[in-house]
Amino acid sequence: MKNIVILISGRGSNMEAMLAAKLPCRIGAVISNKADARGLDTARAHGIPTAVVAHAEHASRELFDAALAAEIDRHAPDLVVLAGFMRILGEDFVRRYHGRLMNIHPSLLPAFPGLHTHRRALEAGCRVHGCTVHFVTPALDNGPVVIQAAVPVYPDDSEDTLAARVLAQEHVAYPQAVRWFVEGRLSLGADGRVRLAGERTAGGALLSPLPDEH
Ligand code: GAR
């Protein structure tokens, strides 16, 4: 059975969705860069080992990345899952976990990398928004896409209502992506492209607003 490590910085709802999904893998540890991350309590309540590598206690990003990698490697994971981990990781770190480092981002990448994605999607007048699970490469919020979920944007949406609609889909997409990986169906090819055995394609399309019926 494969072994994963989950990195969080806060609430940990994506981590919780993975726990609820009863994935066929061992969760070796949940690691946070913040001691007060709420998700750590959830992990402990599930009997999962937790650790804190506080970025504030390291003089440079390189030292933080090295300490984080040392903690991760104690658990010898097959996959490192970034689940709301809000620190930018350096190039050496990303290369060390090439092909076994996954992230979720709350936008349909390559649109809206970075912060405040829901506000920016509203400001841009998008009628469709969503989330992306991707393998991590050194460029921020970039990398080969594993799965995306699209949701409609409604005229009366606030940042909060839109975020909640996207988050509900994150909780579907991310456990699925990790499940594919730990089942051995998903990998990052040497050509930098995602391989997914037995991939099914989506039927139909999401149009928003809905066209008139004729
Ligand atoms: C999620 O919406 C995730 O997509 C986002 O942070 C939130 C964490 O929520 N990640 C990023 O913005 C990464 N660039 P959670 O702690 O409840 O899973």
Task: Describe this structure as you would to a colleague.
This protein has six helices and nine strands, in the order βαβαβαβαβαββαββ. With 214 residues, the chain is of the alpha/beta class. It has one domain (3-196): Rossmann fold, CATH 3.40.50.170. The strands form two sheets. Strands 3-2-1-4-5-6-7 form a seven-stranded mixed beta sheet, with helices on one face. Strands 8-9 form a two-stranded antiparallel ribbon. Helix 1 crosses helix 6. It is globular and about 60 Å long. The mean pLDDT is 97. Residues 8, 10-14, 39, 83-84, 104-106, 131, 141, 167, 170 line the site of glycinamide ribonucleotide (GAR).
Main attributes?
alpha/beta; seven-stranded mixed beta sheet; two-stranded antiparallel ribbon; 31% helix; binds glycinamide ribonucleotide
